[in-house]
Amino acid sequence: MVSSVTEKTRDWLKIRDDFPILNSVDARGQRLAFLDSAASSQKPESVIAAVDCYYRETNANIHRGVYDLSERATAQYEAARHMVADFVNAASAREIVFVRNTTEAINLVAQTWGRRNIAAGDLIVVTTMDHHSNLVPWQLLADEKGARIEAVRITDDGRLDMSHLGELLAMGPQLVAFPHVSNSLGTINPAAEIVRMAHDAGAVTVVDGAQSVPHMPVDVRELDTDFLAFSGHKMLGPMGSGALYGKLALLEDMPPFMGGGGMIRKVSIERSTFADVPARFEAGTPSVADAVGLGAAVEYLQQIGMAEVGEHEHNLTQLAVERLQGIPELRLYGPEKPGLRGGTLSFTLGDIHPHDVAAILNEENVAVRAGHHCCQPLMDRLGLVATTRASFYVYNDEDDVDRLVSGLRRAQAIFAA
Amino acid sequence: MVTDSLYRETILDHFRNPRNKGTLDPADFSYEDVNPLCGDEIRIDVRTDGERVTDVRFSGRGCAISQAAASILMELVEGRPLDEVKAISREDLLEELGVPISPARMKCAMLGLKVLKAGIYGVPPADDSL
Predict the structure, then answer these.
(1) Chain A residues touching B7 at Cβ < 8 A
(2) Does any domain span residue B4?
(3) Is the per-residue pLDDT at A7 higher than 60?
(4) Phi, psi of A163 (to 5 degrees)
(5) Residues spanned by the domain of B26
(6) E strand intervals along chain B
(7) Among residues A279, A303, A327, which one ends one of the domains?
(8) What pLDDT does A5 receive?
(9) What are phi and psi of A79, to 5 degrees?
(10) Which residues from B are below 8 Å from A414, CB to CB?
(11) Do A84 and A213 fall within a single domain?
(12) 8 Å CB contact of B5 and A356
């Protein structure tokens, strides 16, 4: 098992060289072990170059410009949209709305589809493991409309309680929102099955794909979800890039999100009519360079292959789980069955506070996150204030796992009475 | 081996063997607050003779930095005149801690002082006024 991982990681070592920041060292000459990709990923040279090149050679405001530069900028922006659509296998590029991040994508759905379709007494179903970004937008909507929110319970090992989901669906919710992969526990939820159950109950589905789209093949037509939100910056793309996928029929029936330039058809002082999708949802000058950079990120990931990305992270996670389980007093949260877990590991180390663990790891130039991971209801459910979280991506290797493990042992040595 | 570690022996000593840990009942004033970043909780109970801090205890839980800093603060204020306690600054406490506190951990380190001042003045101070 371990040796086969070593064989496989050999090819992956080259990938690390594509990421300039990973070649940096700290004041003591230790290279960076970056284990916080679930928060935001590092960027390969090709993405940095695409953004740089855009500003050097193409920059101009898009749409309606009749000069060459503007036409080229528009073409690159729309080409990026096609690449993102292809990446998640959307039927049409018109089903992709560029946004800044997953949070904005979900708020867009809440403020457009939600405000039009959710009424007093309606039920919105979320889960106990949702990131605050797939909970708070629905709370804001529910408060405004007088709707109710119910959360699907989770099992002790961090899986969704599917029978409880069934019970909630029997109450006839209008909307079911859930994470494809948990950002805290790494749980891979049976998204296609949940979508099918929700549709059978007559509900619209919003899948938070922030932790799945960067890490595994995600096919919106296979999932059949109505909406899928994801962040470009977590999948090697620039900060400020993200996308909302929505089924065309639903998008076309939705009112605008923000009002302004770019999203209108005709404007008079009294009223306006609105542009077709997706422009209707992209008011104002978009972050064109970031969209172009996201296109480059998609290209980079497709060259590796998303199935390979998933396999690499799976192998690394397995290796990390084995080694972490060898540390006394370390407690891992989330599903124990390997196939149910993505490349995110949440744990506690005895009674050492996760922030102290992360601070000691930082002294070894190992970057992890500690806290509630924007999942306070989940932490409450697990009876925790916080966990330490290590997350993997394409550029991580066995050495990063070793650095994590030795840093954790050092933390234990420091706190040993 | 790391030599400029945040977790030097003084910090670890105060974390493991906190000074003046506990509560006072009755107390002349008590206050508690949390640091949402780490989920640190600290409560401080104080008795005074009107001029000096005659007795002080802290209780709570959280990261080593918050708890050690509160313990160090106890030693700093016990028996001291109230006007001197009021004058204790962020810099004073950082000097006592003697380790480099990064911006991310400043709220942990200052929680005890924030709670103490809120107790003395009856209102919580803004974070940047400590």
Answers:
(1) 356, 359-360, 414-415
(2) no
(3) no
(4) -75, -35
(5) 9-120
(6) 29-35, 40-48, 53-61
(7) A303
(8) 44
(9) -65, -40
(10) 5, 7, 12
(11) yes
(12) no
